[in-house]
């Protein structure tokens, strides 16, 4: 069961390859997990079940372990009163949002504030706060470097942590295979598109604080990926869509937030649902509505066995170095400027850039 933060966890699972910087972030999270606790490293999907079962067994002993669990190979060190595997020291303070500010550091590593003019011309304190890359329901590998006055974003810059090794571009896989000349059926692509948008929707709802709706979207995503038929998925999608569209609270939270006009979207090369949303209100509300529209259009094709013909676009639109997630990251800094932190998180969720898509897009451009 996923929890909202390390204070509520008893297992820390690091999934996939991790270089020194990722290990540093994992070490910081591990420091915040209360005892009893277990840390596991899952190298790939095939190892996940075994690794988590072994983690549950170790946790039942109520000792403290930081094992490297890979399939059936387990190493764990025990220290009755202390930490089993501290990891190397890190410079950043503990916390889900890592502060890397300018100015003199205070005790505990928290930076002193700079001073600068705010939007009203007043000189106020500024903090430089990187957000990510390991936050709940946050794009893995994304760091948003922000300059804050109070909790309002005055400036933002995007950084991608690129030391994760070779990762599969899961959501775009059917289209990439088709573009490479493989035989792919339309239903496979429709299934991946529907699941991708349900996954994005689940994260946005979680950030918005609507836990049970997020859980429902996540369960529908898993059903779609598990091969559920269109006639089974369709009524669930209709109920979810009706519930979300009728919610006045969700409309209030997301309406008028992070507006991306059509002209700006076109100039940046934005494609997919974000482009469709920019031609209407262009805000967070319009973007999650565009996901729902794309889901409802694609569900009837889940069982389609005809060959896939449109191979140039995945769930986020055009899959090249200037479209798709690349374009979403380009517009992100301007969209969060002037918003509060809570609003900035909703804006990021409504764009939901796929970091694994970036490396594959660059590689394909190089091959071309």
Structure description:
- With 368 residues, the protein is α+β, with helices and mostly antiparallel strands.
- Helix content is 43%, strand content 14%.
- It contains 13 helices and 11 strands.
- The chain has helices at 20-32, 48-60, 173-179, 186-208, 211-225, 230-245, 248-254, 262-268, 272-278, 284-298, 324-336, 341-351, 355-367, and strands at 11-15, 37-42, 64-65, 68-70, 73-75, 114-117, 123-131, 142-149, 152-160, 313-314, 317-318.
- Strands 6-7-8-9 form a 4-stranded antiparallel sheet, with helices on one face.
- Strand 2, helix 2 and strand 3 form a beta-alpha-beta unit.
- Helix 6 (230-245) packs antiparallel against helix 10 (284-298) and helix 8 (262-268) runs antiparallel to helix 9 (272-278).
- It is globular, with a radius of gyration of 22 Å.
- The two termini are 43 Å apart.
